[in-house]
Amino acid sequence: AELIARRMKRVRPSPTAVISDIVRAMQQNGIDIINLGEGELDFDTPQPIKQAGIDAIERGDTKYTAVSGTEALKRAIIGKFQRENGLVFQPEEIIAGCGAKQLIFNAFLATISPGDEVIVPAPYWVSYPDMVALAEGEPRIVPCSEQSGWKLQVADLAAAITPRTRWLILNSPNNPTGAVYSREELQALAKVLLDSPQVMILSDDIYEHMRHDAEPFVTLAQIEPRLRDRTLTVNGLSKGYSMTGWRIGYAGGPAWLISAMQILQSQSTSNPSSISQAAAVEALTTPAVFHADWLRRLAARRAVVMSMIAGVPGLGAELPPGAFYVFANCRGMLGKRTPQGKTIDSDSDFAAYLVENAHVATLQGSAFGASPYIRIAYAIDDDRLHEACARIKNACLALR
Ligand code: PLP
Q: Where in this chain does the record put each Aminotransferase class I/classII large domain (predicted)?
């Protein structure tokens, strides 16, 4: 008998988790592999935030909390949205969860009925289409081109909207491209959305603080208040505060949606860890003085990757303004032969070649819905990044 549920046929394991497993297995076999595949900063969680977690344990804040987060955390989230995004929320419009991932999942599960469509601009974060599929919706992938800065074009959005469109996903700064939408670009998209009242907008702002340009950050609900009642603004501490393991994400949106997400959460995980919530309060209520230093170090690493790419015929990339990835075009590698005599036919072949021959893990563009590209995550130790780039370069130059 088939013991796995039918809905599982529509999902694949997260490719980032798969690459991490491959890397761990190779490391266990004594291979010195450098992982540029994972979306995680190497910086430590800042000390005062860690201390707030330790204090919470010692105080005895080790019990269930309200499902959608403690009052203190909700106040901190409301303060953050107001201070940094000019968004005013009431407590019933706020929810905290076990990472942005859980909140996005719950938002889809709470709102998508079979056959509903979700517009997913590509390249996309690997989990969006699978989450839509698990909720029995239809991901409607809309390709964005390298030439348009990887950003969704107004005409393409308008053409993708149907009476069954339930959501549009916006992710700026973007994983995997690092693209950042400007105020004008969001305004142009908002104009189309104002004419389509059936469409909700999920604004995934998780890389908000990871930006290298001087432009102020903008998010959809802020620049078009008329869309506020159908926008879910999602954020979290994983990237901006280097807190991936603490599992805290949060969202602000209309009370009816937040309430439905909370009901789902109450029947699955309940509250995110009480200890992590206490640490999150510290993170969101204290100026993030470490950001300047982090961004300076990240910009230097980005430069290392860009200079490697510039030195390798067949690779190419524009300078990504945000996140900590370079999404490099590898069209010039297709058709080449490896020293072992294999032909590189796709970006997956190229990424596999880099793992096997250079012992550097990246992720193929096809995982993000755009080929032929590879995503290089550069948030790792400087020396290791230099070493990884040298290895990639040598491996590329060995192709014929
Ligand atoms: N959204 C995007 C675009 C991401 O890249 C990630 C993590 O890689 C997430 C959401 C999930 O983050 P969290 O750790 O808060 O679940």
A: 32-392
Tell me if 152 is assigned to some domain.
Answer: yes
Q: In the predicted model, what is the mean pLDDT of residues 12-27?
A: 82
Q: Which of 384, 388, 385 is nearest to 302 (CA)?
A: 385
φ and ψ at 119, to 5 degrees? -80, 120
Domain extent for 165: 63-285
53 within a domain of the structure (yes/no): no
Q: What share of the chain is helix, strand, coil (3-state, %, to 5)?
A: 45, 15, 40
Residue 57 forms part of a structural domain: no
Amino acid at 268: S
Dist. CA 30–CA 353, nearest whole Å = 19
pLDDT at residue 1, rounded to an integer: 65
Atom nearest to 16 CA in ligand 1: 8
Residues 37 and 82 in one domain: no
User: Which of 5-14, 154-163, 290-299 is predicted least confidently?
Assistant: 5-14
Whether 379 lines ligand 1, by a CB cut-off of 6 Å, is: no
What is the whole-number distance in angstroms between the Cα of residue 383 and the centre of ligand 1? 26
Q: Facing residues of 251 across strands? A: 95, 234
- The whole-angstrom separation of Cα 240 and Cα 289 is 12
* Encoded tokens for 60: 């005895």
Determine phi and psi for 94, rounding to 5 degrees: -125, 140
320 lines ligand 1 (CB under 6 A): no
**Residue to mutate (ligand 1; options 41, 202, 238; most atoms within 8 A of CB):** 238
Compute the distance from residue 303 Cα to the ligand 1 centre, in Å.
24
ipTM over 0.95: yes
What pairs with residue 96 in β-bridges?
Answer: 250
Rounded to the nearest angstrom, the distance between the alpha carbon of 190 and the centre of ligand 1 is: 24
194 touches 224 (CB < 8 A): yes
Distance 212 CA to ligand 1 centre (A): 19
93 and 214 part of one domain: yes
| Centre of ligand 1 from the C-alpha of residue 99, in Å | 7
Instruction: Return the pLDDT at 22.
Output: 82
Q: Which residue has the tokens 């990339």?
A: 317
